[in-house]
Amino acid sequence: MTATVSNSLTGALAGQLVTFTLSNENLGTFNPAIGTALTDADGKAVISLATSNIAGAGTVSAAISSGESASVGFTMKGDGGQAGGGAQVTLTLTDVDGNTTDSITSTSPGILVATVTGLSKPAIVTFDASLGDLPIKTAITDANGKASVSIYAGSTPGASSATASLATGEKAEHVFVIGASDVQMGSGDPFVSGKAAVSAATLSAGGTATISVMLQDSQGKPFTEPVDVSFSSTCSKKTSPEAVISSPVTAINGLATSTYLAKGCVGDDNITVSADVGGKNLSATGVVKILAADAGSIVFVDASPENIGIKGTGSDESSIIRFKVLDTNGNAVANKAVSFSLNTDVGGLSLNPATATTNNEGIVQTVVNSGTVATTVRVTADIDGTSPLISSQSSVLVISTGKPDQDSFSLSAETLNAEGWDVDGTAVKVTARLADAFNNPVPDGTAVYFTTEGGAITPSCTTTGGVCSVTWTSQNARPEGQLLVDNSGSRNPIAELSATGGNFYGQKYGGRATITATANGEESFPDTNGNGRFDASEVAAFQGTDVSGQPYDLAEAFVDHNEDGLFNPQQAGGEIGGENEELIDFDSDGVFDSADGKYNGVLCSIPAHDACADGISHSQSINVRSSLVMVMSGSTAYATDPADIRIIDRDGDNLGGDIDINGKSSATVQFTISDLHNQQMPSGSVVTFTTSAGSVASSGSYTWPSSNHNGGRQFSVTLKGADEPDSGSFIVKVKTPGGAETEVVNLKVNIY
Q1: Distances in Å between the alpha carbon of 76 and those of 59, 116, 268, 331, 661?
Q2: pLDDT digit string (tens) for 678-705?
Q3: Where in this chain does the record put each Big-1 domain (predicted)?
Q4: What is the mean predicted confidence (pLDDT) over 737-752?
């Protein structure tokens, strides 16, 4: 737009400010956006007007400060950008030579060109497209207000909409078409479509090769756009891959190359190469042949299960033994013959098959079947045809009963005297350990059951490696019994805490809870001839006791509340306190069954004799059991009555009174400390000994150990005198793990 300003007398007027305005601001945008310009020496003021995206007619007016004005009409096509903010954006698509186009293909990419007007400085233009690939999405306008980026066809053909936008919101749009390209995949010179090039047609086991393909257009020129090419093979796609092939690979200047590694594949392996270019699926194939590997080693894999039962005992009688054959590169070797043998066949132990062939994973297996004798065995595997012979041996396979026996069952607790009489929630780990008649750990998963009359306990656990643990927790019920002090504070007349350790109360024993663990197992027997079977010649010894002093022949299990060894509700001669003992009724007949005189187990001699349970009238299994006593220790400590404390000093050996010491000589004080039931104080309690006259010559403190001894604990403390006469006090205090502290002894000390 040009406005000319002149005077009728003097002619053209230079340096006049001309202001341009639009009749409708939505129809276009001035450049410069402010809409003003100065006249030159010829009196002319020039400004640019760019069309917007709205078609229509309007007028432009030009005026100077003195009021003179002029106007002119125009018509807009509306093929520009959005008007406003002073900036305007238009967008076009060209080919690589700068020619305007409305389509691109994989072989003919395009350039998006944005033209920005209305701005006096460079601007950042952001490009986007609904289809096609834009490797770079931003560009800066040049001196002509133009910014451009390359756009490629990508993998999906169709109509696409491209946009160019400024940070201030101005935007332009251009619609174009992405067409499919005539790109081919192949290899060779001359080029063969659909064929992949393989660097080595035949590979040794563990060898490598390269697989290559070329992408080219219909004119035979390399397709230069980056493309992801996928490589795969039959062996590489197996569940356990027998080949490794690099994929995907980006084609550079039309060439894509992958590396192939043989890892156990044998024979022809078909290679497949594929890519998607401009909506066209391309593919090529090839073949690589891998030679069979030489066996380099054989390794033991596993035995499942690792423990099997003696034939006829009711447990698993067979185990699968597996080995793996590897080549010299450590890859699995298929189709190799392997022979198996046992290092012993005692008792009819056998395996089947004796020879087998490895599978595609190099795995070969045989099955070991148990015999009639408990033993351990190993399987040896030899690779046929190797020189020197390549072989390996399995781990030890155990053939046993698979059942726990009585004399191999033990029960322990990490603490036997927990602070549990006055405190709820004290937790103690209780552990059961079980083995069979040959002292091999019982099979994993063997169930052990627990019960107690005091506190609470986890009901069961299953073994791992012959061991399992549960948690005992202090809470009600708490077994009541004789108390040291009654409710009035008076001492129980039978509750003597004398210098001799031990429980003088008699039944009932308070604060002592019996934990009993049971498992389905069998009785032990005296195997005097070492043949692993209960023979008729061993019946007399079976009526006696085992090495632990416990009977071989067992009655039914029960929870022995009063620790007298008798089931008090039915057996005579027991002590009080067992009236509510719980029967663990193995045969569910509601009656306590005494020892039956039979060996209840599966290891009777063959043939059996009269002292063997037949499994019909007499069971071949029984509840094996073990018990321990958990002391629910009180938090308050008590000591021997002062009148009964033994004092050995200058006056001799006396009960009660002061501690009298001549000069630097010594004296000994002996007393017993216990809880309210004359039981052990809680494990971890600390007993301290102090004197304000003289010194404590023996240890100044004692930490209470884990113990379920039925009674208090005796202490003997030595005091040493001094050069000068003095008097003071000998004090003994007990502090439990829970923080309860009690002063239990306070005696006068005289030094002469």
Answers
A1: 11, 18, 71, 76, 126
A2: 999 999 999 999 999 999 999 999 999 9
A3: 1-75, 300-399
A4: 96
Inter-residue contact 250 to 226 (CB < 8 Å): yes
Q: Is the pTM of this model over 0.70?
A: no
Report pLDDT for 445: 92
3-state DSSP assignment of residue 537? helix
Mean pLDDT within 227-240: 93
The two three-digit tokens of residue 98, written as one number: 């700068």
| Closest-CA residue to 717 (of 664, 649, 636) | 649
Closest CA to 327 of 394, 244, 240, 242: 242
Question: Would you say the C-alpha torsion 111, 116, 122, 125 has a positive or negative sign?
Answer: negative
pLDDT at 578 over 90: no
Return the residue matching tokens 């659909």.
194
pLDDT digits (tens, 9 = 90+) for 276-302: 886 678 999 999 998 877 788 899 999
User: Phi/psi at 289 (nearest 5 deg)?
Assistant: -105, 125
* Degrees to nearest 5, angle at CA 664 with 661 and 670: 45
> What is the set of domains in the chain, with CATH numbers?
2-76 (2.60.40.10), 88-178 (2.60.40.10), 184-290 (2.60.40.10), 295-400 (2.60.40.10), 638-751 (2.60.40.10)
Mean pLDDT, residues 163-183 taken together: 86
Which tens digits make up the pLDDT trace of 325-382?
Answer: 998 878 888 889 999 999 888 888 999 999 999 998 899 999 999 988 888 899 999 9
Secondary structure string (H, E, C) spanning 416-458: CEEECCCCCCCEEEEEEECECCCCCECCCCCEEEEEECCCEEC
Host H or E run for residue 541: helix 539-542
Q: In what order do the strands lie in the sheet with 622-633?
A: 417-419, 622-633, 512-521, 447-452, 460-462
pLDDT at 502 over 70: no
Cα dist. 426→452, 633, 638, 709, 717 in Å? 15, 11, 21, 20, 31
Q: What is the DSSP letter of 540?
A: H
Q: Given a cut of 80, is residue 191 above it in pLDDT?
A: yes
Going by C-alpha positions, the residue among 567, 577, 459, 466 that lies closest to residue 518 is 459
d(CA 2, CA 4): 7
Distance between CA atoms of residues 561 and 508, nearest Å: 10
**In angstroms, rounded to a whole number, what is the distance separating the alpha carbons of residues 35 and 481?**
109
DSSP secondary structure of 189-208 = TTTEETB-EES-SEE-TT-E
Residue 491 makes CB contacts below 8 A (sequence gap 6+) with 484, 485, 641
Task: Provide the pairing of β-strand 158-166 with 124-129.
Answer: antiparallel
Q: Look up residue 407 and give its two tokens.
A: 């004399």
Let me know: does 364 contact 381? Beta carbons within 8 Å.
Answer: yes
Residues 6+ apart with CB under 8 A from 333: 205, 264, 292, 293, 295, 325, 326, 327, 358, 362
The Cα–Cα gap between 242 and 263 comes to: 5
Rounded to whole angstroms, the Cα distance separating 145 from 165 reads 13
Q: Are 653 and 485 in contact (CB under 8 A)?
A: no
* pLDDT, mean over the chain: 90
Environment class of residue 502 by beta-carbon count within 10 Å: exposed (0-12), middle (13-18) or buried (19+)? middle
Residue 343 and residue 71: Cα distance in Å, rounded? Answer: 116
Determine contact, residues 672/637, Cβ cutoff 8 Å: no
H/E stretch holding 539 reads helix 539-542
pLDDT at 499: 41
Neighbour count for residue 136 (Cβ, 10 Å): 10
Short-list 702, 664, 665, 649, CA closest to 680:
702
